[in-house]
Specification:
Layout: H1 8-28, H2 35-76, H3 83-117, H4 121-159, H5 166-213, H6 224-265, H7 279-300, H8 311-340, E1 346-353, E2 357-363, H9 365-390, H10 395-404, H11 408-453, H12 457-473
Antiparallel strand pairs: 1-2
Helix pairs in contact: 1-4, 1-7, 2-3, 2-6, 3-4, 3-5, 3-6, 3-12, 4-5, 4-6, 4-7, 4-12, 5-6, 6-7, 6-11, 6-12, 7-8, 7-12, 8-9, 9-11, 10-11
């Protein structure tokens, strides 16, 4: 099993993509409603696709220019290779594909959710969250698949599939960094461009409709409503998908790079520990691969049985799926860390400051798991904090509602104040997570904490994409 572990994350990613395709097929088979519903949905779909096509045409020029720059860098820097250009192009393509795929399923699920809501609330949740599941698994599956496959290819090309030394592995990982750079490049433009369009369309629709014409929000008599709904998809779905794709890849790759430093600190003497001597490098990919299968389990638990269910029950169903995935990632991380890292000690450098620089310490692999656990717990708490500050019926939102009774000015002040306060706990938690994970396992622990936290990206994205789908359905 140890000899084929390098291929396991790719296999798990393929399984996730197969499940995604099956779920997509099921969603597309659902009733899309009458002619008028299909007409409105088609306008949203065409508008979102037109935006992405225009955006990707411009981004293709950026990819060409950046590829030329990377070729010059590869010529000058000895620790990289011209193959970084190939990795960069595929990273950009996969990132754009993830966003495009999510946008398409979101704009095709909204009308099916509307039709399903005519029959029952449980069916509407099943359809809308099914569309979100396609988005989440598509992003996570493509990220893990692309990263793993390119690592295998570069590992075979530069090192013959066998451990030689950390210098050669540095070339492998720096070349692989092109995949992450490509993903992040597309994410930057997609997130910012889609976000600006979203807010412009949303505010424009409100100004024309509610302020000038005096009609309700999302009223079909307001043509800007279509632009508003298009914005939800290109910003909150396509932009968010590309953004998290890039972040996911960069997080896992950072942990792999630091894993190479662990091997270097140990003098490259962990070959006898199995996994071809690269266990610390493979571990982040293994956690990411396990996270895909665990996210599938989590999505299966999101369901309600009553047609008269309140909003709190729907939120409870989402929380059950989310927390189940978080707990299962914690359990799987324990077994993966104990199995894949040296059983006795790892040598890690800890920064002690001043002239002393780094101090090298031997730590047990269980401390690496504690670092992972820190990231997992903080990720779960962040979800709870977000729910508290944004959920209907919660004190922060009710406070904004109460302040709105005296006019737009107090509404804006209360909203801004609540938004600013909501960031405090998140910043504090992340600072605590960085300190604690570093105390347990150095920089490698910090990177693994982030990797473990993002292992449930597929589940988190499914919940995120569910929002715009349900909003458009309304």
């Amino acid at each position: 099993m140890e000899s084929i572990m390098i291929y396991v994350p790719a296999i798990l990613a393929v399984l996730g993509l197969l499940f995604m395709w099956a779920k997509r097929s099921w969603v597309m088979k659902q009733d899309a409603g009458d002619g008028k519903m299909k007409e409105i949905s088609s306008h949203i779909y065409e508008g979102a696709l037109a935006f992405l096509n225009a955006e990707y045409r411009l981004l293709s020029l950026f990819v060409v220019g950046a590829s030329i720059a990377l070729a010059a860098i590869a010529y000058v820097v000895p620790t990289t290779h011209y193959l970084i250009i190939v990795a960069f192009i595929f990273g950009a393509f996969f990132s754009a594909l993830a966003g495009n795929m999510g946008m398409k399923i979101a704009t095709q699920t909204n009308v099916r959710t509307t039709q399903a809501a005519r029959s029952s609330l449980p069916q509407a949740l099943k359809v809308s969250f099914g569309g979100g599941t396609v988005m989440g698994l598509g992003v996570a599956g493509l990220a893990v698949l692309g990263l793993t496959v390119f690592f295998i290819l570069f590992y075979q090309y530069f090192m013959g599939g066998e451990w030689t030394n950390t210098n050669q592995m540095t070339v492998v990982l720096e070349t692989l960094a092109g995949f992450s750079l490509g993903a992040e490049s597309i994410a930057l433009f997609a997130r910012v461009g889609g976000g600006i369009y979203t807010k412009a369309a949303d505010v424009g629709a409100d100004l024309v409709g509610k302020v000038e014409a005096g009609i309700p929000e999302d009223d079909p008599r307001n043509p800007a409503t279509i632009a508003d709904n298009v914005g939800d998809n290109v910003g909150d779905v396509a932009g968010m998908g590309a953004d998290l794709f890039g972040s996911y890849v960069a997080t896992v790759l950072a942990a792999m790079v630091l894993g190479n430093y662990i091997i270097e600190d140990m003098g490259g003497n962990i070959v006898e520990e199995g996994f071809g001597g690269i266990g610390p490098i493979l571990l982040p990919m293994a956690i990411a691969g396990a996270g895909i299968i665990i996210s599938i389990i989590g999505t299966m638990l999101v369901k309600i049985s009553s047609n008269s269910a309140k909003e709190a029950e729907v939120q409870k169903a989402l929380n059950i799926g989310n927390w189940t995935a978080i707990i299962l990632v914690a359990i799987s991380s324990y077994f993966l860390v104990i199995w894949m890292l040296p059983k006795e000690t790892l040598t890690m450098g800890f920064f002690v400051g001043g002239a002393e620089g780094f101090e090298y310490m031997n730590i047990n692999s269980i401390r690496v798991f504690y670092a992972c656990l820190v990231g997992i717990v903080v990720g779960g708490v962040i979800s709870a904090v977000t729910e508290f500050y944004t959920g209907l019926g919660k004190k922060p939102v009710l406070s904004i509602v109460q302040n709105s009774s005296t006019g737009a000015g107090t509404n804006i002040i209360a909203g801004l104040a609540t938004g600013m306060i909501s960031t405090f706990l998140s910043v504090l938690l992340f600072a605590l997570a960085i300190w604690a994970s570093y105390a347990f396992a150095g920089f490698y622990g910090v990177a693994l904490a982030a990797s473990a936290m993002m292992a449930t990206t597929a589940m988190q994205l499914a919940i995120d994409a569910f929002g715009p789908i349900a909003d458009n359905a309304g």
